[in-house]
Design brief:
mainly alpha; flat
Length: 62
């Protein structure tokens, strides 16, 4: 699964002509409001994905 994710990430970076980290670093350095919003969105999406992946997809399981 990790290998397929890595291939998909590489393909996306090749198509876009940049990677997420490079876009965030250059955009924040330029104080671009759009890139700061993108940074927050990426961080929250990664947090949510990791939370659901590690917790089995439930919010209120006891």
């Amino acid at each position: 699964m990790a290998g397929l994710g890595g291939i998909a990430l590489g393909a996306g970076a090749a198509i876009a002509g940049s990677c997420v980290v490079g876009t965030i670093m250059s955009g924040v350095a330029l104080m671009s409001a759009g890139n700061v919003i993108f940074l927050v969105t990426v961080v929250l999406a990664n947090w949510a994905t990791t939370w659901f992946y590690l917790m089995g997809g439930g919010l209120f399981d006891s």
